Each structure stands twice: as C-alpha cells, then as structure tokens.
Structures
1.
Amino acid sequence: MAGWFALLFLLALTIALALFVSARRQRAHTGLPPRAQIVYADTGAWKKVERPLFSRRYGLTGKPDYIVAERGATIPIEVKPNRVAPAPRESDTLQLAAYALLVEEHYGTAPAYGLLKYRDAVFQVDITAELRARLLDTLAALRRDLSARDVARSHAEARRCRACGYREVCGRQRMDNEP
C-alpha cells in the first residue's frame, strides 16, 4: 500500500514539474520578464480588461498587450507574434511610446523602457525624451490630418500599395516594381 502512495506521489511530482517547466517556457516565449508581475493584460489568455487606458491630457487611448511590474518599474509590452525584423519598426516603437504615456498617466510613474516582442526577438525600447517628442509630433500631425479636407497618402511601400483597397481609384501612378 505504501508503495502505491509513493508511486502516485512521484507521478504527481513529475507532472507538476513538467507543468512548471512548460509554463516557464510559455512565459519566456511571450517576452515577459521572468520575475515580473503582470498588472494588465489585453490578451484572451487572461481576464478580460474592462477598459482601455485613457489620457485626457493627450487625447489618447490604448490597450497594451501587457503591463508588468518589476522591481518598482511599470513596463508596457507589445507583442507582434507574426513580425520578424532585425530591429523594431518605427510604427511599433511609436505605439510602445504611446503606451508608455498611458502607463505614466494611469500608474503615476514614467516607464524607462518598454518591450517589443516579435516572433523571434524581444527588443528593449528606451523611452527617451527624443522618442516622446517624436510621438507628440506624430499625434499633432494626426490631429491636423483629422480636420484636413484631403490627406496625402504614402506610396513609399509597394507592398502596402498592392494591398490597398483604393488602388484602382487612387489617382497616383503605381510604383515601378508593382505587377
């Protein structure tokens, strides 16, 4: 009888250890710091977030994928699971900077950095005064465009032009390398 209990105990211990190792691997795959506490999550894997973060001061709202607390710091994290790039894209960097502004307003402390998780890499993006200024300039330009009668579109990326729903009525010449 004692042998069966010992065997069941060892089996339960082995299963618990396997689950622990699997959970650590999954967490590492998300890009979350290993010892950080998740304080906000906008993913289906966690509880539903009631409201997005909102800044009346900047007229900005958003839902970062995660916000974690680690050693007194509050860190926004944005996950782009299908993106592969050697460095963060500018649009993703500005999105993370916007989340840093929202975190600052909501939690009362400005993050020193945020994390961008691409499929195969995690990038630490320092939230500098220069990045904040670029974000605020971009927000101002977006607000100006909201009231503009006609907004010039970017045609610098052939891939985006090919996927554009207005391609046939655009009025701009197609790029040379398009089919």
2.
Amino acid sequence: MNRFLLLISCVLFLSTSCSTDKDNDDNSSDSIIGTWDATALQIDNETATDDAKNARDILSFLTARDCYIMTLSFREDLTVDTENSVNYLEINVNPGGTGLDVPCPTQSDMDSSTYTYENGVLTYIDSDMQSVTVAVEIDGNTMLVDAQDLDIPNFNDSGQLVFVKR
C-alpha cells in the first residue's frame, strides 16, 4: 500500500511539474516571427540632434495617419522581407505657409534576406552581403531596435526604433 501511495505521489508530482504551456519567452526565436511596422523613434530630447528630432516627428506624423514607412516581415523559414519608404519621403510646405505636410510615400525599396534570432540578438545579411548584428528587445507585440545599428538613412542618428507587430 505504501508503495502504491508513493507511486501515485510521484506521478502527481511529475505531472504538475511539467508544463504544457507554450514557451512565452520573448527571447525565443518564435517571438520575432511576424510582420513589424516602425511606429516611433525614441530619443533623448536633451542630447538628440535636430535631424533625429525631425525623423521622430515625421515618423509619428505618418504613423498617426496609418502610414508605415518601415516594415520587417520575419518568417519561420528564417527569411526576412523588408519594405523601406524612407528614400521616398517628401516634405511639402502647405499653401499659405500653414506648416509642413509629409504625404505617405507610394514607393518603397524591398529586400529579402536570411536571419537568425537568439537571446535578443538578431543577425541578418544586408544588401551588401555583409552580416549585421543588432540587439533587439521584444516585449509582447513591441520590438525595440537601436536605430544606429539598423543604419537606415535619416533614422540612424540616435535612439531606438519602436516596431509594433501586426
């Protein structure tokens, strides 16, 4: 009888200590899979250059109009597609001098590559066939990437680019 109770206790202990929940670790390779849109540039107002402040403001203005000028799509097969409209941004002066307008670009540069993502480190091959390593912080549906590491013109001065998962 004691052996039977001991066996039942062991089975109960083992069944409760093993979890069937999916791994929710934001550093797992699955956490990056999906389509991510750049929605903001976080900078320090005290030390940021005027270029960084302008980039932040333009990105915020376009995001508020549901215009996403940088999109990253990570797939399970370790390929990534990028869509970047930064080179096609236009800044127009509103008639009557009432401010500036930045229309949503209709053109974009597309690129495909391969990537790896482990323990918060993203490595991909850029358009010059160079390996690029970037520290990435993922918290649920938000991804932070050092803007300088991505080296996107006009957004590589300082700060962190904020991407939101669709």
3.
Amino acid sequence: MSAPRAFILGHPVAHSRSPMLHGYWLEHYGIDGSYEHVDVAPEALAAFFAGYRDVGWAGGNVTVPHKLAVMPHLDRIDDAASQLGAVNTLWWEDGTLVGGNTDWIGFIGNLDELAPGWDGGAKRAVLLGAGGATRAAIYGLLKRGMSVALCNRTVSKADELARHFGQGVTAHGFDALPDLMAQASLLANTTSLGMVKQPPLEIDLSPLPADAVVNDVVYTPLETGLLRAARARDLRAVDGLGMLLHQAVEGFRHWFGRTPEVTSGLRKLLVDDIRARTPAA
C-alpha cells in the first residue's frame, strides 16, 4: 500500500503554513506520508476532481477561493460545513468523499487549551464581525451552550447570521458594545481588524468583567492591539494561532490514522515562522 498523501488546495496557496504544520506531525509520529501544496485555478477545479480518485489522495484541506466551489464535487457535506456555508477539510468514509468544516473545532480547541474553564460562569459571548470566522465561532459556541451577541458595523449582516443560526444569537451595532460587554464572559474578534496591513481594532475594554476572556482570531501579528489591551487589564488573552493548529487535528486523524497533539514544539515552529515573515509581530 502506498503512503497516504494529503494536500492544501487553493489559488494561490504557496503562502499556506499547513504543510509546515502537518509535516511536523508526520515527522513527530514517524508516519510515512506527505502533505502538499496543490495550486488549482477556479477554472481547473472540475478537472482536479475528475481525476481525484485516480491520484489516490487520502484527503486534504481547502482554502480560498474553493471553500464553496468544492461542494458540488463531493458525495456528502457534514452538518458543520452545511451550517457554515464552507468546506475546509476533505476525507473518505467507506468510499464516500466527505466535505467538512473544522474551523469551529479550532476556535473552541484554542480556547480550551489557553483559557481552561472559559465556558463556565455567565455563558455569554460577544463576537465582533459577521464573516466566515464568525460563523465558525457561533457554531462552536452554541454547541457549548453559550448565548451569542454579534456586533458588526453593518448590522444587517449580523442580523442575517442571527436569523441563520436562530435561537441564542442576537445582532447589534457597535453602539451596543459597552452594554453587551458588561454581561460577557467572552469577547472575541472574528474580523481582520488588527491584522498586519489592516486598520486597527480600537475598542474600550473597561466594561468587561474582571474574569472575562478576550480572544482574537488574528495571528499576524501574534499580539494584536486588542490582546495588549486585554493583558493591560489583567484579563485572560487568547491569540488566534491556536485556531489554526486545532482545526488541523481532525483532518490529520482522517488521513493518517493518528490523532495528533497540539504541543509547545509545534506552536514554537509556527511562532518562529510568523515572526520571521512578519517582523512587526
């Protein structure tokens, strides 16, 4: 039997850190397998899937611009991918090609690792944003029994998400943020604000309770302005790198038959790479 091969599918895709991440696990566990960049332009996607079985892929990850476009080529889509409207992981189940979304696992796993007990207490979360990362966060938070308040500058986008997910999710403008934060056990930024080459995210964290957790899905830079502000208030602050690490666990398990651990060694590998590529971090 040939060694299992997995991939990161996108266009462009050379910048992806996923091969570094999965390569670390393959070496760490002594697994004979590979994880490769696969750059496929949108017009070539159908041809890629036409030859998918012949190539013998064990599965892979999917990134922009294909997270929605891959769906017609799959045999089944799991509940998370259906709810989130995007596929980020492919694997086989009894000869069936399945598309799933593990971003919500990454979001929750990151919080579990770096802020144990974050989902106790008030169980109220405030999310900034209304994009793909927001969807993943909502899905995971609802599974943990949290109520979710969405704050977005365009309230109609937040309202659309609230209606999509239903009970437990409400939509608000940024003017409601102080009152919402006063009742929050978790504040999470799921926008690109604060990322390198993006505008900063400037909010006053003073309404947050002293035991609240602040999370930023941004990880370039590793310490955003939001996280610095949280630490200045002695709040628990969780960066976004762990979301990338934890979302990868399920895919690796499907492709290579081993559930990998997110370790300090893996984190250091990616931290060093991020700092080398983004000196401001």
4.
Amino acid sequence: MSFRRFFNRFRVLLGLLILFLVSESAAQKRILILSWNVESGGNDVATIEEQLKAFEGYDIVGLCEVRADNAARYADAVEDGEGAYNRVGKFDYRLSQSGRADRMMIVWDVRRFELVGEPVELDSINDGNHRSPFVVKLRLTGHDETFLFMVNHLARINASLRQQQATQLNNWARTQSMPVIAVGDYNFDYNIDDGEGNQAMENMLSPGLFAWVKPSELYKTNANPKYNGILDFVFLANKPDHWEINSKILVDGEGFSFPDDDKKSDHRPVQARIFIHDP
C-alpha cells in the first residue's frame, strides 16, 4: 500500500473517530424523559409493556397509575427497549408507597445516573387518601449535574385539595437549591382553545418559580370527552442558565390514538428533552 493511500485511510478513520467522540460527548449531555399515566385498572398490562418496549432512547421514565404488582413488568419493559442513544442500558426503578392501586414509578438508566440517597415522598402534600409527590435525586455520571426528578398525580375530583397541592408544591420548590424536573398528571385542565388552565394551575405557576415546558404543538392528553384539554405536563423549577429544555406530546402517529379502549392507556405520553451546555 502506498503512503498516500495509507495516509488517506488514516485521515478518514481519524475523522470518523473524532465524529464519534463528539457525538458521544453531546449524547452524554442530553437527557430524554418520558412521562405517562398508564391508567391502572383500565388497560391491558401486556399492551402497555409492548408500548414501553417500543420506546427507544429514554433515560428517565416517570409513570402514574401503576399497580404494585405490575411495576417490575413495566421496569423490565423499559429496559427491553434500547437504552439511551442506541446502546443497551441497565435500568433501576423505585415505586411510591402512596396511591394504593394508582402509584407512581420512576425508572432510570443506571449507567447515566447515580441515585443520590433514597426517594422521598412528600406526605405533607397529601390528605392521606391520594398520592404524595414522589422525588428522586439523580446525578449525571461523569458530571457535576445533580437534579431532583419528581412525579406528581394531583387530585381529580377534589378541586380544593388539588389547588392546595399545587400551592404546596410551589412552596416546597422554593426551598430547593437544585433544578426540579416535575412530570406527571396534574389535572390542570388546560384548555387548548382559550389557553387557560384551572385555578390549581394558576396556583402552581403564578409565583413564577415553576415554568411549564410548553410543547410547540398542543394536543389533548386524555381521551375522556369530558376533558377537552391537557392534563399531563412537564414543569421545571430552578432552571440553570446552561440548560435548554423542550417537550412534545406523543400523538396518534406514534401509536397513541384515541378513542380509548380496554387495552390502551387513556392518556398520551409526554416527552421532554434536556440539553446541558457547558456552563
């Protein structure tokens, strides 16, 4: 082989290596999140499993309305899908204690995140009959980025309690020094037509701490015809200046079509993507 040919091949391989390293570095600073109310008691567990398996690239998954005896199956389904960035990941999970048959669950890629301490349930933001906010602290592997990831499912029928929960969440976030990513089913009834939610949504947002990571395209997230709006949200508090975040409601073309039936969830999933730039 001539020196020129060897040099050209070496240059191509070096370029590919640099591209790989740059892509890998960028991937390490990108977090893909899925939030989904899977509708306990109104779904087919095997159908939800298959849908979770079909998701690829998600680093953290927050689920609402999880029956305790289905939690391990859902966690295995998340892991069966490929891990973040087209590589096999290993996932761990925690399940909330409150909520009876409608618990909350957080699943994460242990190769990308270290669990700091144990999960916390904010039982003071609960009347004892609903679901306490469920929080884990995660640290991005190889980086100093540490944040709180929270799943909420606020009261549906009891509007007074829902408003109180929203106010208490805001008050709690004010005591935190690190970013808070809060996902879940908030029952805020945000009407797409008039651009307004209910009083509980106003309570959560009015002090200006939590910000709704608003999708560029809005679709109703619950199949019930009584609720013509968005119930499922991603909020962020204490956003660092070097974070960029967006969200997306996953709709019909991605396999979450309405009307509801006895196999699917009656909620659409919501995706969030975080890009962490150099400070």
